[in-house]
Specification:
It is built from 5 helices and 9 strands. It is an alpha+beta fold. Strands 1-9-8-4-5-6-7 form a 7-stranded antiparallel beta sheet. Strands 2-3 form a two-stranded parallel sheet. A hairpin with a 7-residue loop joins strand 8 (about 180-185) and strand 9 (about 190-195). Helix 3 crosses helix 4 (about 115-130). The two termini are about 25 Å apart. The model is unreliable at about 1-10 and about 25-35 (pLDDT under 50).
Length: about 210
Amino acid sequence: MSWIFRSFLAAGIACSAVAAKADTIVDSPAPRSAGSFISEYDNALAPLQFVKFCMNYGTECEADATVDQVLPSGERAREMLREVNLSVNDAITPMKKPTSPMQAHWTLSPDAGDCNDYAVTKRHRLIEMGWPKSALRLAVVITGGGQGHLVLVARLNDGDMVLDNLSSSVRPWNDVGYQWISMQSGSNPRFWLAVSEHGEHLRARRQASLRAPL
């Protein structure tokens, strides 16, 4: 698993040159369990393209200015997520971009872009709509086809929901069929954490190495 994660850092996050538009028929399964959140583990390296993104869009990577920002409540929050997911999927034309860290860059609201541009644009729009940054977290995943991919995770009071350029639906994180690798920290957007089974395995391996005799 770790070699896959390192390959993201070295070669960038490759994205499919497709996007799910508003008229795309995509099943929207019910959540498997209420109150489902992505488990978080130890610090992880941020994608190099994200570091470059923060250099170009500094305010996007700053923590919330105040601690009293609250999530929209209930169904209104889900409506906003669906609206932003669909509108951004419709607004950006899918385009294959370079994945080399030296060439790749993430852009807000381009006319054409890849999964990275969709994800950061959705996050930006929701922040403009009053959402706290701590609830909007970029995440690196591996698709069923083995491709690196970037999505936006919105942390609601009852679980983590995924906004994805490959789906017109906003889905619970454990219904998307992805392998979860790393995600932005909720306390500081510049830091990333290893997550889910990947994070658990990394921690177990690290603890085993510490216990091993010299």
